[in-house]
Amino acid sequence: MTVPAAAAIPVDPRITAATKAWPTRPLYVDPDFAAVADGNQLLRVIEAAPVPVYVAVVPTGQWFQEKGDTTLLVGWLAASNGKPGVYVVMDGDETYGVAHEVAAYAPDSSLGDPDQAMSGQLADYLGELKVSDQYDAKPARTEPDPPIPASSYPEDRFTVGKAISSGAGAGVLGLLGGALLAGIVLGVAALAARRRGGQA
What we know:
The protein is of the alpha/beta class. The chain contains 5 helices and 7 strands; from the N terminus they run H-E-H-E-H-E-E-E-E-H-E-H. The strands form 2 sheets. Strands 1-2-3-4-6 form a 5-stranded mixed beta sheet, with helices on both faces. Helix 2 links the parallel strand 1 and strand 2 (53-57).
């Protein structure tokens, strides 16, 4: 028995609010961002895109269910909305996006200029969007990425023996270098003495 994809989408007030707003307009702005999001300009940028774009201006971070994986949050939003398009999450600092069931390339993220309006940040992000049949129209990711495997190389542990051998090796090199330098200095001094003796 297969588990439906929707089962992977957690209950999250940001997802609920955005998917409730999108049927009437493709932009949802969290109340905490209402003062900084230039909504009308954002809508103009969204409407100018070559494919359907759905934008959610919401808070993100390690303390939310996505644990800082904001691209995963975007995938949850796309799967919850269930319509093909490019889905974007903006938090005022960075723009994250995915292409969902549409033949397009969307960058994972782009860092915004803090002095730039959010509509400008969105325009810069969508400027990197590429629409072409060469891209697979696949669903967005709704599961966390697998953990990075541990290194297979043996760990080089620090031991007293290694410290002594390293110190001894450095000491020998130091003595050899010192002897060589002393020999050069003595040779130069002897040469200078001979020259002075010949001129007397």
